[in-house]
Amino acid sequence: MDERRTLAWHETLEIHELVAFQANGLIKLKKMIREVTDSRLKQLYSFSIQAIEQNLKELLAFFPQAPIYNRDDEEEERADTPFYSGDLLGFAKTSVRSYAIAITETATPQLRIVLVKQLNAAIKWHEQVFNYMYEHGYYPAYNLADLLKNDVKNARRAISMK
């Protein structure tokens, strides 16, 4: 059997991260564009929306090749709580990464102490948001099939938003 007919596990998880991040970002852009009054900025928002929609469509085409993916039983669209908590999780995750990178660039001992303290706080914040999402079933971290199903649902919702 040619194993390349399915995605590798690590590829699947990277695509999950990209789709989850971009679907949340797309929803935010589509909500925010309504408030943008500057015509050039509105064009940039429109361009960004089209580019991310295309990215999602291209990435979703790979989901049937994931090692574990079952299209059945895709849930009905829920309220915005999963979106808002997912957006918060993405922000917390990005904060952890940003602090870790900043620490590697720090030469001043006092600044390093502050950044390490803030990194540890960001890690705790991420943990709290993740636990909230996991407890409410918004992030089924231990069930790849459900995780991918959520990605597809959120990406389709983001693409179909007006």
TrEMBL record:
<dbReference type="InterPro" id="IPR012347">
    <property type="entry name" value="Ferritin-like"/>
</dbReference>
<protein>
    <submittedName>
        <fullName>Spore coat protein F</fullName>
    </submittedName>
</protein>
<dbReference type="InterPro" id="IPR012851">
    <property type="entry name" value="Spore_coat_CotF-like"/>
</dbReference>
<dbReference type="Pfam" id="PF07875">
    <property type="entry name" value="Coat_F"/>
</dbReference>
<keyword id="KW-0749">Sporulation</keyword>
<comment type="similarity">
    <text>Belongs to the CotF family.</text>
</comment>
